Amino acid sequence: MAADQESVRGVDPLGRYTIAGLEYPAGLNSTVSAVELAVQMNTALLNQGVGQRFEEIFFVTHSFGGILVQEMLHQALLSPGGEGAVNEKTKLGSLYDKTKLVFLIATPAEGADLASMTRKLTGMGTPILSDLRRIDENSYLRSLRNTWAALLSNGKLAPQLACAYETVPTWGFVAVPQDKISTNCRGVPFPAAEDHNMIVKPSTSSAAIHGWVRGKLAEHRLASTAPNTSQTVAEPAPTHLLGTRFSSEAR
User: Fold this and answer.
1) Nearest to 176 by CA among 115, 120, 242
2) Domain residue spans in the chain?
3) What is the 3-state secondary structure (H, E, C) of 62-90?
4) Distance CA 175, CA 6 (A)
5) For a Cys staple, 170 with which of 31, 43, 196, 218, CB 3.0–4.6 Å?
6) Rounded to two decimals, what is the model's pTM?
7) Per-residue confidence at 87, pLDDT binned at 50, 70, 90?
8) Rounded CA gap, 49 and 90, in Å?
9) Cβ atoms < 10 Å from Cβ of 240
């Protein structure tokens, strides 16, 4: 992304964004739940002052990372340091307010058949396996889905969710097919002719998934800077494009 200097529809190329990676341990044998991982991630971003340093924030997430970012942003919205906080430097709520778009790439928002199967066959009851079970047996994912549906429909400006899914088998089957992605996606979900691992590892800037991300960012920037007869639009402020990825522990 940092090497991308091609403008899309007259909008700044990805190389003009500040880009950072956020790691988290997410092995299936981890003893930490999605809620606890989100607390850790919020703490890391708070310590870096991300919510205060940038006017617009975008998350590019993959797989379980998309679930964590949705949980993390909901926690930020509800945090004691949210709206009305006295100390702006510790205001977690600004992270939610400034996040404009979350890319959910191959995110099993409706649960993963593999997690349910592994849990039943092995007897493993780790928090992450529990959090990734199919939604019909997973109250956590149902609650997260309903929370975001409410946020997106109550009139408050909530971060939008843009979704993509894989169409190529990874382990003999498609890990996150279309029916497993979020039901709260904005627009038509993007089908990528890649497997679960390679969907977020485009070899060139001409890859379809790369073009989809660039196009969605361009749509947002054009919409946010469109002329408005009732107000004056200022020049776009610095933007932070923040992608999540698995840490070495999860590989």
Assistant:
1) 115
2) 14-226
3) ECHHHHHHHHHHHHHHHCCCCCCCCCHHH
4) 32
5) 196
6) 0.82
7) very low
8) 8
9) 19
Q: 106 vs 214, which has greater pLDDT? A: 106
| DSSP character at residue 170 | S
The token pair that represents 16 in the structure block: 């003009």
H-only helix segments in the chain: 34-47, 50-53, 64-78, 93-98, 113-122, 127-131, 139-153, 208-224
| pLDDT one-digit tens code per residue, 5-43 | 565 555 566 667 788 888 887 666 678 899 999 999 999
Residue with tokens 């070495």: 248
Which residues contact residue 172 at a Cβ distance below 8 angstroms, ignoring those fewer than 6 apart?
none
Q: Among the CATH numbers 3.40.50, 3.10.620, 1.10.3470, 1.10.150, which is that of 14-226?
A: 3.40.50
Residue 157, exposed/middle/buried by CB under 10 A (0-12, 13-18, 19+)?
A: exposed
Single-letter residue type at 77: L
198 has a pLDDT exceeding 70: yes
